Amino acid sequence: FISFFFFFLLSSFHPNDADRPLRTSVGASLQRHKRNWVWNQFFVLEEYTGDDPLYVGKLHSDVDKGEGKVKYVLNGEGASSIFTIDENTGDIHATKRLDREEQPYYTLRAQARDRATNLPVEPESEFVIKVQDINDNEPKFLDGPYNAQVPEMSPVGTSVVEVKATDADDPTYGNSARVVYSILEGQPYFSVEPKTGIVRTALPNMDREARDQYLLVIQAKDMVGQMGGLSGTTSVTVTLTDVNDNPPRFSRKSYQFAVPESLPVASVVAKIKALDSDIGPNAEMDYRIIEGDGLGVFRVVPDKDTQEGVIILQKNLDFEKKSSYTLKIEASNRNIDPRFLSQGPFSDTAMVRLTVENVDEPPIFSPLSKMVVSEAAKVGTIIGTVSALDPDSTNSPIRYSIDRNTDLERFFNIESTTGVISTAKPLDREANAVHNITILAIESLDPSQVGKGAALITVMDINDNAPVFAIEYETILCESAGPGQVIETISAVDKDEPPSGHRFVFSLTAETAGNMNFTLRDNKDNTASILTKRGGFQRREQAMYRLPVLIVDSGTPALSSTNTLSIRVCDCDLDGTPQSCGTEAFMLSAGLSTGALIAILACIIILLVLVLLIVTMRRRKKEPLILDEDRDVRENIVRYDDEGGGEEDTEAFDMVALRNLNAVRDSKARRDVTPEVPTLYCSRPPPYKITPDNGIFREFIWDRLKDADVDPSAPPYDSLQTYAFEGSGSVAESLSSLDSLSTDSEQNYDYLSDWGPRFRKLADLYGHSDSSNIFSS
Question: Sign (positive/negative) of CA torsion 370, 376, 379, 380?
Answer without folding.
Answer: negative
